[in-house]
Amino acid sequence: MQRLLREQAPHWAGLPLHRLASSGTDNAIYRLGDRLSVRLPRRPSAVALLAKELDWLPQMADLPLAVPQLRFRGRAERGTPFDFGIFDWMEGQIATPQHIADSRAAALALADFLQALHRKATAGAPPAGALNSRRGIPLDGLTPAMLPAIALLADEIDGLRAQGLWQEACAAGFRGAPVWLHGDLKADNLIARDGHLRGVIDWGLSAVGDPAADYAAAWSWIDPSARTAFRDRLGLGDDDWLRARGWALYGAVIALSYYRGGRNEALCRQSRLTLSRLGLLL
User: Fold this and answer.
1) How many angstroms separate the CA atoms of 24 and 249, rounded?
2) Nearest Cα to 182, choosing from 82, 276, 49?
């Protein structure tokens, strides 16, 4: 990273640089001085995700919650070429419950953010699919991956109930116009400051598709006491709500079946919490 800074952003090359610990699997994050951060892909599959994020983030700058502000876009050509970004540092903490003073206010802030995101123009935007790990595609397209993952978790979840929920969610097909979605609204992609939800980071899984993939935050992040307020603010009907439960189930089952056994304990804890809120843990 120091070499890239010296070659492409020499005016920042003398600033202290250190890598941050993160439960994320796609990008490495560095703190650069006091006011900047650097993101670059950790694996080849993340190269296109970060490039897409760098393409589109500037168009999200006026959303009601802060998003990363891009200051410099660079490219590494040696080995596997990849783009990287230098952003303003966003002050705050990961939006875990202890950093949120009012759960209902946080849920409403996220709902208002999603409503504004859905109003963003989608012309030329990337459709949900392979480029965003299929977040926002029709749910039934995920069944071939979902059912074996449920079976792998037979020692932790009620498999029959999980399959039943999945089938119901798939049947509640999305019939609206595709809209922008973030694709990964979990605590470590949400920033709290002074007890309030303030920002949304890591847009690598954003795309245009079924917004229920983001409504899944009602089980993965929002406090259960604020879930109804979130739904009411967004005006979600029964089919939207059912698909949101399906997306919450999908995210938790896929992550837990892959990462359990010490590979990513933070993500596994979050997945188990989501499954508990869905009433599926044994």
Assistant:
1) 19
2) 49
